[in-house]
Write a structure and sequence with these properties.
It is built from 18 helices and 20 strands. By secondary structure, the protein is α+β, with helices and mostly antiparallel strands. The strands form four sheets. Strands 1, 2, 5, 6, 7, 8, 19 and 20 form an eight-stranded mixed sheet that branches. The longest helix has 19 residues. It is globular. The chain starts with a strand and ends with a helix.
């Protein structure tokens, strides 16, 4: 016989990722009784944010100013809207969310986090550099601020606040509760119902069973859907894959745990919510297979500096400005036209030591553990960092050889490597090396390398001194086979500026709110077609705060 458990609250929050933690914490701080549910065991509190590198987008921050970076709200708006490319009727709320988020990133976002004890690495990163014209996509200046403590450092203060409220009886946290329906009375959402799943002792990120042992109901005056996106569900990713990006890859790896499955979208739609911009998504092309996986098909993204030579599966160099770190979506679209699911980096030991960082809290023990000695050793010392070296030693996508002939042979020996034209690889690498010896180069990537090193942060820890890759003094040669790694949904549930779910962009559904990736980080797609990086965690913070405060005020 199935056992039904019942709960009541002022606010129900579905999903305990960063947006959910923030929404629940804001409502609890305003004196509301909160229930927060999630289908995973409690070890996963914090969701995907815990696994992140902790990058945050700020505008005209003290860290930027100390490095001589001249940023402004106007410049950031130019970059955001040039990247977003809003062009649909459904972009009405996303446009307004973008304006509101830019104000937040320019004003109180940093101080609000600092008040909660969140600190930042002093060197600002330059992600999504663009390489087009001034009004095209990309960041005109470095804006990627890494949290001291990475993703866990962002999650920690909000988790701690929630657990304090739990101990005081103001918050109830219910793991292994999977919502299957939003309950409604006379058009108003009054809570949710669903399955209680079998208890699990699985560690964070490991896929868990969906065995049902009971059911539950939660009655609440307001409900926030903050259940994340679809990156762990390849079926949904392929279903929503846009024609403008070519055919979806036959083979992809996964940058998020399996629970990022999009299962709440049809549940919300059944209650009248509208899912918009589902064809806008953010997947990376610098993915490598994790040699020590946590979840199924676990992929890690390389956060590359700008020096590696990027070749398609046949060995042809990618066109301007599709260099490492310049235009994620443009590179994805180009590579999908090649007919292959993989591409290659070719580089030197000197480049990998200076430029390779792996995305994720677990791949950056120095920053995650706030270990200054390890940080100095790994970022400024001789040799690749420990996690990068582990991939060089154990990763199936890495080829390390002493000469170009052997490197090409090693590349061709990997699955799919038979597509590689060895003579074309040689032509591209040798031609590039001739240009690096020339002070008056026509090679745009080399010119951009020299420009990048004018920024102190890049020169210190992010961009290697331009050199010939084939110079024996630069160390062994390295090739890395790159895969498409799924990550973020840029579309989501349409909401107004209070986080209320709206019907056809106009009428709110009483009692229903959405936040985080489930809402396209606000409005149903605050990023438009392209994101500027460091904006995903920030979108969770801003939309979660907005929804939590708005719902609490309305109760």
């Amino acid at each position: 016989m199935t056992t039904t458990t019942t709960h009541s609250a002022d606010l129900l929050v579905i999903g305990w990722g960063l947006a959910g933690l923030v929404a629940a914490g804001e409502a609890a701080a305003l004196g509301k009784k909160v229930v927060i549910v999630d289908q995973e065991p409690r070890t996963n509190l914090g969701g995907q944010a815990w696994w992140s590198f902790g990058g945050l987008f700020f505008i005209d921050s003290p860290e930027q100013r100390r490095l001589g970076i001249k940023d402004s709200l106007d410049l950031a708006r130019q970059d955001w809207f040039g990247s977003a490319g809003f062009d649909r009727e459904e972009d009405a709320w996303p446009r307004r969310w973008a304006e509101a988020y830019l104000q937040f990133a320019h004003t109180e976002k940093r101080s609000w986090l600092r008040e909660r004890g969140v600190g930042f690495f002093p060197i600002v990163g330059w992600a999504e550099r663009g390489g087009y014209t001034a009004i095209g996509p990309g960041n005109s200046v470095p804006r990627f601020h890494v949290t001291w403590g990475t993703g866990p450092g962002v999650v920690a203060p909000f988790q701690a606040a929630l657990e304090i409220a739990e101990a005081e009886g103001r918050v109830t946290i219910l793991p292994r509760h999977r919502v299957t329906a939003l309950t409604m009375v006379d058009g108003t959402v009054t809570g949710a119902a669903g399955d209680v799943l079998a208890p699990s002792g699985a560690v964070r990120g490991v896929a868990t069973s969906r065995e049902v042992v009971g059911d539950f109901e939660v009655t609440a005056a307001a409900t926030v859907v903050s259940s994340g996106g679809i990156g762990g569900n390849h079926t949904m990713v392929r279903r929503q894959w846009p024609a403008r990006l070519g055919a979806a890859p036959e083979s992809m790896i996964t940058g998020v745990p399996a629970y990022v499955d999009g299962s709440m979208y049809p549940v919300a739609e059944a209650a009248g919510a509208r899912f918009i911009n589902g064809d806008r998504m953010w997947h990376y092309v610098e993915g490598i297979q994790n040699w020590d996986p946590v979840w199924p098909q676990h992929g890690i993204r390389i956060l590359p500096g700008p020096s590696s030579v990027w070749l398609d599966a046949t060995g042809k160099r990618l066109p301007v400005p599709l260099f490492p770190g310049y235009d994620t979506l443009g590179t994805l679209a180009h590579l999908r036209e090649t007919g292959y699911d993989h591409s290659w980096f070719v580089l030197s030991q000197k480049i990998i030591e200076k430029e390779f960082t792996l995305s994720g809290s677990e791949q950056n023990p120095d920053l995650t553990g706030k270990d200054m000695q390890l940080l100095i050793k790994s970022r400024l010392g001789k040799g690749a960092s420990g996690p990068v070296q582990a991939f060089m030693d154990n990763g199936v996508d890495f080829v390390v050889r002493d000469n170009l002939d052997d490197l090409i042979a090693g590349m061709r020996a990997l699955p799919g490597g038979d597509a590689l034209d060895g003579e074309l690889v040689r032509l591209e690498v040798e031609a590039r090396d001739r240009e690096v010896d020339n002070d008056f180069t026509k090679d745009a990537q080399i010119a951009m390398l020299r420009s990048a090193r004018a920024f102190r942060g890049d020169k210190l820890i992010r961009t290697a001194t331009p050199h010939r890759i084939l110079d024996p003094k630069s160390g062994p040669l390295i090739a890395v086979k790159l895969h498409v790694v799924t990550r973020k949904s840029l579309g989501g549930i349409e909401t107004d500026l209070d986080g209320r779910v709206v019907v056809d962009g106009v009428e709110p559904i009483p009692g229903l709110y959405a936040a985080g990736e489930a809402s396209g980080f606000g409005g149903g797609g605050v990023h438009g077609y392209r994101a500027l990086e460091g904006t995903f965690l920030g979108g969770c913070l801003f939309s979660g705060r907005t929804a939590g405060r708005s719902a609490a005020r309305a109760i």
